Amino acid sequence: MIRYLPKLDSILWALKSQEAFDTLDDLRRRIADQRTTFYRAIGRNTSYQPDEVELCRLSDRDPFLGWTNYCSVAVGGVVVGYCGE
Question: pTM score, two decimals?
């Protein structure tokens, strides 16, 4: 199971907004759809595909949540959240 924590200004809202996915492909699809919807809502004609969602490994273990294989999740060079197992 892959857990996703969005990067928000409030850690409380970020923790309440956590999502779980069965695979990394499911995570990438959700993030690409979410960012596409957001940018279109603010008037930009931007579309993202799942292969444009980048995962950058930060560490073996997150010290705060205890997740393993801890990665940042970025779209278009902007970090939008974090994931781990």
Answer: 0.88
